[in-house]
Amino acid sequence: MGQRGRKKGANGERSRSLLLAIAADEFAHKGFSDTKISTIVKRANLSQPTFYLYFESKESVFQELIQLFRSKLFDLTKSSRLEPGIDLTSVPERISQVLAAIFHFFKENPNLTRIGLFVGEEAEDIKKQLSKQIMDNLISEQENGYFHLVLT
Amino acid sequence: MGQRGRKKGANGERSRSLLLAIAADEFAHKGFSDTKISTIVKRANLSQPTFYLYFESKESVFQELIQLFRSKLFDLTKSSRLEPGIDLTSVPERISQVLAAIFHFFKENPNLTRIGLFVGEEAEDIKKQLSKQIMDNLISEQENGYFHLVLT
Amino acid sequence: MGQRGRKKGANGERSRSLLLAIAADEFAHKGFSDTKISTIVKRANLSQPTFYLYFESKESVFQELIQLFRSKLFDLTKSSRLEPGIDLTSVPERISQVLAAIFHFFKENPNLTRIGLFVGEEAEDIKKQLSKQIMDNLISEQENGYFHLVLT
Amino acid sequence: MGQRGRKKGANGERSRSLLLAIAADEFAHKGFSDTKISTIVKRANLSQPTFYLYFESKESVFQELIQLFRSKLFDLTKSSRLEPGIDLTSVPERISQVLAAIFHFFKENPNLTRIGLFVGEEAEDIKKQLSKQIMDNLISEQENGYFHLVLT
DNA sequence: CATGAATGAGACTTCATTCAT
DNA sequence: CATGAATGAAGTCTCATTCAT
């Protein structure tokens, strides 16, 4: 039997994430209103009630995805905050690393990104908040003397 | 009867364009699926059957708007085709005039533009076709020796 | 043609009151949860969407019926308020008239009464308010010297 | 193994009566249709399949409760049947004892009583049967010469 | 030219109930 | 003894569209 000890209940989480992934895909490609629960569950080979076993409503899955995008993304930018006393020569490199990480994240999570940046009503908010956080990082870096911002 | 001579057809056309304009606004701001006929006619102070007096279906109004955008826009770019033998010194000015005309058109027709470039499923097609036509113009101009393209 | 001038739109109100009456009957006999919109419209020879043409939701028809009961009933008790200077000998007769009117109303509107007094969640409230109003009337009558209350 | 001798069947019966009691409470307070199996098992800290381990269906628990009410109640009234040759002076007392027992039963079993007398579709039947049995008792007592019924 | 009235089709959601472990 | 997971059936509600006047 070895490493196949899981059995009972093991598929609950699997079903949930399957549904979540398919939902992300549908929302990303068709928008909220054109995404049908019936399509999601059909693609997951499950029945409609199963969807409601794991999510409260269509709206709530959508919100969950938006939140997921927000938290993953802001974790990324937050981790980029530079600390005083750092080796000055490494600063530009770190900045570019963060931007690279962001674009890498976008590329690795295209559905989530589409939803977060283009589909949701909060899209504008998210973009603003993202810009602000990046800006703040840059500014705090600037204040720490790492470099000078030149606005044009 | 005297001053009641105007009438037949007059209000018909008025209602039609009113509906079309409101539809454009709704489609532009809410997308296809979230646009409801009931909202359109309410805003126009008309009834639902009246809508079907002028349009075959929701889909068909949408297509009509897409067509309108396409034709207006391509008329614009077509009219910019330069003819051989033109005064060479006026070329840069004409090119900038065309681009200005396009952006002016975008600004003057925000709803149509949103629909044509972002809402419709044909959006990608339209953008490609638009780029191509502009490119073609530039190239034909280039071939006519007006200038040299430098791709970077 | 004579007195049959009504035609267009005349049946809207008819459909509405038909649905309302049937709804009252169903709610009275089966309670809120066991009353199905599908049954109501079937009995009215109408389709489900028609129901929503006239009512916002199942809940809202129910509330409308409760309100109807309340207002009709309280109109009845309100109209019973005795005014000072009335012929004293007529007081007992008027009181009994009001009670008779109430019971007559109950008998004439059995569905509404069942809903108002037994089905709705507000039933207890309504009963209390009804008692209070009757009491108030009696007391004001008593204060006006029409008679003396003897509580036992 | 020692002190783990009690077990098999013990918890089973415990779960069963727990579910039955909660079901009674829910049915009594919300009626049949608004009572959900999911609520019952949640309150019992059990799962839905467990419910079906002990009962065949929602309907069947309901019927079981109705039967329970009926049998308990009719046991009560049956035990009140007076036998010929009894001491005549004790008759009124015994009658009042039976009525007291009935009302005591109602008070001690409020949920069952609500279900039996007000919720179930058989409510009317039960009430009739109850009246009849009480009546029969009275009549048989009357026939036995214990007293004379005076209907007004 | 216009509308009041009505509806078929289909979406989201809930619930009693079962399967497999 | 008990449960995690799943579902058929049915209910409420919405929307594009049509009929008859």
UniProtKB/TrEMBL annotation, chains A, B, C, D:
Gene3D superfamilies: Tetracycline Repressor, domain 2 (1.10.357.10). SUPFAM superfamilies: Homeodomain-like. Residues 13-73 form the HTH tetR-type domain. Pfam families: TetR_N (PF00440). The keyword Methyltransferase does not apply. It comes from the Bacteria. Keywords: DNA-binding, Repressor. Transmembrane segments: none annotated. Signal peptide: none annotated. Residues 36-55 bind DNA. InterPro entries: Homeodomain-like_sf, HTH-type_Tx_Regulator, HTH_TetR. This is TetR/AcrR family transcriptional regulator. It comes from Metabacillus herbersteinensis.
